[in-house]
Amino acid sequence: MITITASDPDCRARTGILHLPKGDVPIPAFMPVGTNGTVKAILHSSLEEIGYPLILGNTYHLYLRPGTEVIGKYGSLHKFSSWKGNILTDSGGFQVFSLSSFRKISSDGVTFQSHIDGSRHHLTPEKVVEIQTLLGSDIQMQLDVCTEPGINKKEALKALELTTEWAKRAKQKRSEQDEHYKGSLFGIVQGNFYKELREQSAGQLTELNLPGYAIGGLSVGEEPEVFNEYLHFTAPLLPDEKPKYVMGIGTPDYMLEAMEAGIDLFDCVYPTRVARNGTCFTLEGMLNLKNARFKDDMNPIDNECRCSTCSRYTRGYLRHLFSAREILGPMLVTHHNLHFLYSMMEQARASIAEGRFMAFKKSFMERFRGMV
Domain extents for the chain? Predict the structure, then answer.
C-alpha cells in the first residue's frame, strides 16, 4: 500500500507514495476535511486544481444526514459528491466522544443522540465498517474510544481494550465485504497519556496486521510539549512498512513535528475554519484580514504565494468582502489556505528527498512564527 522513496538521514521523516484505489497520493500529505461530503467554501474542481488527491469525509455526519439510504442510491460518496479522488472516512468515534452527555459506551458499541434532531442511534464496529463500505471509502477508520486528557489509568485502559476488541471485530467484518470493494481499514492507537498503555495498544493493533495505523488521542487539548512527547514515543511503535496517520492536526508547527516523527498523513478543519473568519496562512505567520490596517492594503495575502487568490486579489479587497459579509471572501481565503499547505507539503517532500528536512523545518518555522 505504501512505497517509501526516501528517508531523511537526521530524523524519521520519509517521503514516497500511498497507493489508493482512486490514484496514488504523494506522502507526507495533508487531507482537507469534507465532513458533510464537501470541503467548506471551496469547489471540488478547485481542490483538484491545487493538486489534492485525497480528502476526508465523516461517517457520523453522513450517516445522520443525508443518510446511507440516499448515498447508497448513488453507489458511493464519490459519485454522490462528484469527487474523483480518494476519500478517507473517519469512523465518527471523535464526534461521539464530543457528545459525552448524549452517549453511552458498552462492549457492543456506542449509543448516542443525534445533534441534529435528538434521535437515538446505535453504532457497532461492524455497522461502521458497513457504512464506510457503502460510502466507498478508500481508507476507512475503525470505531474507537477516544479519551480526553486527565482521565485515570484505569479508564484509559478500559478505552484501550475496547478499541482493540473493536478493531478485531472491524477487521473480521471488513474481510466479509464484497471483493470488488478495495478500501483499506486502519486501526487507531489509544492509551491516553500513559506510555505503557500506548505501547500496549500499538502492540495489540500491530498483531492484527492491518493495512495502516492512526495515532489517536492526540491534539485533544493537551499542551504542545505533551503532544510532541507522545507523538515521538508512539510513532516508532508502529510498523514502518505501513502508512502512519495523526488525526486532527493542520498547522505547520504540528505537521512538521509529525513529519519529523515519520507520520505520513494528517487532517484538520482548522485551515478552512479560520479562513471563513478571515484568517490566513502566510510565510510570515498568521494574518487576520478583518484588521482595520488592511483596509487599503494593495498587497496580496502573501507576496510569495502563487495561488489564484494571491494572483488576483488584494488584502484590501478581501477585507472589504469580509466587512460586507460577502460569501466570496471565505471562498477565496479557503482556497489560499489550502494552496499554502499543499505548497508547504511539496517543499517538505522535496527536502526529505534531498536529505535536508531538519534544516527546512527550522527555517520554515523561524519565519512562520513571526506574527503579522
Answer: 2-268, 276-368
With b meaning 16 or more CB within 10 Å and e meaning fewer, what string describes 194-218?
beebbebbbebbbeeebbbbbbbbb
DSSP SS3 for 237: helix
CA distances in angstroms from 172 to 126, 208, 216, 288, 345, listed in the order given: 8, 10, 21, 48, 35
267 noted as active-site residue: yes
Which residue among the candidates 90, 138, 144, 302 is catalytic per the annotation? 90
pLDDT-derived band at 369 (thresholds 50, 70, 90) equals confident
H or E element in which residue 128 lies: helix 125-135
Euclidean distance between CA atoms 272 and 337, whole angstroms: 7
Cell of 217: 488521542
Q: Name the CATH architecture for the domain at 2-268.
A: Alpha-Beta Barrel (3.20)
Instruction: Determine the Cα–Cα distance for residues 141 and 125; give it in Å rounded to an integer.
Output: 10
Q: Please confirm, yes or no, whether 90 is among the known catalytic residues.
A: yes
The single residue of 138, 264, 267, 302 carrying the catalytic annotation is 267
At 115, the pLDDT band (50, 70, 90 cuts) reads confident
| 138 three-state secondary structure | coil
List, for residues 258-288, the tens digit of each pLDDT value: 999 999 999 999 999 999 999 999 999 999 9
- Is the bond into 28 cis (omega within 30 degrees of 0)? yes
- Cα–Cα distance for residue pair 175/123, rounded to 1 Å: 19
